[in-house]
Amino acid sequence: MPGFKVLIVEDSKASREFIAATVESVPGVEAITAFSGFDALKLLPRHRFDLIITDINMPDINGLELINFVKKNPNYKDTPLFVITTEGRAQDRERGLALGAAEYLIKPFEPQSLEGLLRRYLHIA
Amino acid sequence: MSTSSKGLAEFIAEANEILESLGRELLQLDSRRGQEADPDQINAIFRGAHSLKGLAGMFGMDQIAALAHSAEDLLDRLRLGKVALSDEVLDALIESLDVFQALLTESSRDETIAPQSTSRASHMSQRLQTLSHGGTAKAEEDPLDRVGLEAEVRNVFTEYEEHRLRENVRKGVGLWKVRAAFDLSDFDKGLAELNGRLKKVGEVISTLPSSQPGDDTGIAFDLIFGTGQGEAALSALLQGLPATVSSIPVRGSGPSAPASAPVDDWAPLAVIAPPVPAMEAKPTKAKAPRSRKAKAPKATPLDFDSPTIPPLMPTEDPRPAFVEVPAPPKRSTRPAPEPRPTAEPPRAAGSTPPLPPAEPPRAPGSIPPLPPAEPPRAAGSLPPLPAVEPPRSEPSVPPLPPAESPRARREAETSLRSLTQTVRVDIHRLDTLMNTVGDLLLIRGNLARLAEAARQGGAGGTPSKVWGQELHRETRVLERKLDELQKGLLEARMVPLGQVFDKLARMVRRVAREAGKEIDFIVRGEEVELDKLIVEELSDPLMHIIRNAIDHGVEAPEVRVRKGKPRRAKLLLKASQKGNHVVIDVSDDGAGIDTRRVRAVALERGLLTEKDAMEREDRELQYLIFLPGFSTAKNVSTLSGRGVGLDVVKTNIAHLSGMIDVSSELGKGTTFTLTLPVTLAIIRALVVSVSGRPYAVPLNSVIEITSVAANELRTVEGMEVLSLRGQTLPFARLARVFGHPERPLKRLFVVVVGLAQERLGIAVDELLGQQDIVVKPLGGRLSRVRGVSGATDLGNRRTVLVLDVGALMEEIISSDRRAEYH
Fold first, then answer.
1. Contact A59 B185 (CB under 8 A)
2. Do residues B626 and B671 both lie within one domain?
3. Does B342 fall in a domain?
4. Rounded distance, CA B612 to CA B596, Å?
5. Who has the most CB within 10 Å: B83, B285, B465, B705?
């Protein structure tokens, strides 16, 4: 079974672990976590991620900036990216999707729905 | 969403942390009412509420999430400048923290949220919502449209960043794009340096990782920056950094600010030391650094090529300059792992829920008969045990005075105890423990080798002398290392008192406001550390004492003025370490204890006879306030001093092997002094015996051991006393205290114990030696035995009762004071 790597960028520890646990409940998927946008920028070149999940409100760079960075960089631009955030603001959602986020989930989210999305985007049966 | 108990614990811990830092930030804002608030700080508080909402939502804590949502909403409008920071807003926000705390407490106990909490939460929520929409939104032309920024850049701004950008435009400062390239491995340090320099002269509005394809070793950033400095000054500022500056055009007009904008009004507020959730509110002090770093700042505005002349900006930065700590910024005060509750060292001595049910001493025969205290010592004079449950069985609180104001908010103020069973430990402390364990493993290896040698060589003979020496050496090292390990573990359990003090500060503010008192709350010694368990147990008694001080000690402002005192009262909470003990003083400069009233009340309640009352000195009378039955709701209003439920406080402190003392001067104020051991977990004890029964005396309260001939004892007022180097000490025979048969001995061993200033000689039959013991609380009815704090196992399967020196001294010394008037 090919191993998939998913990057989770989330500054809340409890949320991060919750998302990681959900991600890893899909067989063959490994979660790698970053606690900030900067941390994510450092991790990106070190792995080949199959999918990225990011929060919007983070202490250093915001999620939109991260999406922009990922989507404009030829090395990562094809990596599907989900946003999971508390931010219910329509403007941020529009911007996130416009910048190239594939899915935009609002916390609290159902683990099953994230699981389903992961399977779909990673093509896991 | 399933919430495993581990997940729940995580949630509670994080939510608590958020609430704690919100409390700190809000109090800081509060202390600077009327001044311009620091946008960083508002944003930090917003982020806290925001994180809380997300967190609560994730864990299905709908009520907390809903309330957090309202708070977040209000804060959002506040930070976006749509609502002004009024006193009302600040009050509501601060008070909402208590509602959060109550909800969290109930969730943590796995209880369903009580209806009154629900209604309280929804009231608070409503209040916050009303405030968020009471503001006046100013409709004007959007200054953002004047900024010549590529849509590409603008599209990654969050609404908050847009707001900051707008504010900068409105102020008329120049906007710049600072491009900087760094090595990927340490860009955060480079950025921090860059941010540090920039923030001294302006505001970093946004940090965009550049979309320019770089290789895998480098990364570039665009910082959108607003400042009143000119290009030359900026270039000078950035000298030595891999950064270039380009101007972002802003179309003219708008309210162009005067060149001599009142810089000082803008000096942002200093920022609280510990970082706020996910937000580095850096102290972007505009004044000092500016004058230090950028030379002649006020002379520069004119070399600036922007159409408007910029006033200086509040230097402000929504992003952290702080990235070196390899932990989420939230936790950066102590970047340490959090041990799960289960991994915690054994708890001891009376308290928290997860304790193993105290093992009752094995043979019922070995329990000393519950002592209806001895006849001469006048059992009646000291009401046996307060009918109040000792704290260990009930995670909540000593009953507060039957609230005089029946306000729900007040009643709901239950406990300041924190909800987590976790202790954050400095990683260095854990490292030290690891090293010690490593050494222990080495010793184990050596011992195994010695054992093997003995097995092989010792076929018929005795082990050699060399072997014996080696074993001896290893044993000594082992002892030392075990000591280190023990010490290390005890240290790991220590937490600074500041954790409790912060919460108390919030309470003081609210209680004072409710009681119409004006109080400066001064805190000293937050850094003093105590065992986590003690800190937890301490919060409620302290809350009680402080409440009393505010409600009954401190006079109303007008009264104070009339008495020639400053209008604002001082309330000082001070902790200091004295050897193995921590002393905590709570002093006020209020009315003091009116001993005439105390006397009258004590007489009325039959706590004192007429004759006795006349003979007592003021200081002795003050102690009466600690008697159960002294305080009732009735005298709350009539007694101008204090005395609300202090017997409960005293009992709680006694359970921590501590003592409480009071000194007061009428008209000048009152000081309560709490003396507590630094740790409870493992104590060194002196093991003694009376009538063949062993007892353990905590060594930290043993002053000396001596022996006296039975005929050297004197009797004063029916009490035995002991003369020791010219000093007269109260004296008690342990056998009598616990109702054991006494042995007629010519010489008695006397263990002199002391706490604070008090001394007591305790006569025992034999001294058996010293030992480290882990005190386990006694369960059930045994927990009420006076003078015993718990039981311990000496390792030879013998259960030994541990003396509660504090309680013993109080019992004996106070019954002594009381003499007999029956």
1. no
2. yes
3. no
4. 14
5. B83
